[in-house]
Amino acid sequence: MPSASAIRHRSDVPTGPSSPQDTGAPVPAGTPPVQGGAAFGRRLSVSLRVLPPVVVMALAFVYPLALVVQQSFTPDEGGASLAPYSEVFASESFRSALATTVWLALGSTAGCLVLGFVLALVIAFVPFPGAKAVARFIDVFLSFPSFLITLALLFVYGTAGMANGIWTGATGASDGPFHFLTTPWGVLLAEITYFTPFVMRPLLAAFSQIDTAQLEAASSLGARPARIVRRLILPEALPALAAGGSLVLVMCLNEFGIVLFTGAKGVTTLPMLVYSKAILESDYPAACVVAVVNVVISVGLYGVYRGVSRRAGA
Question: For the chain, is the Cβ count within 10 Å smaller at the N or the C terminus?
Answer without folding.
Answer: N
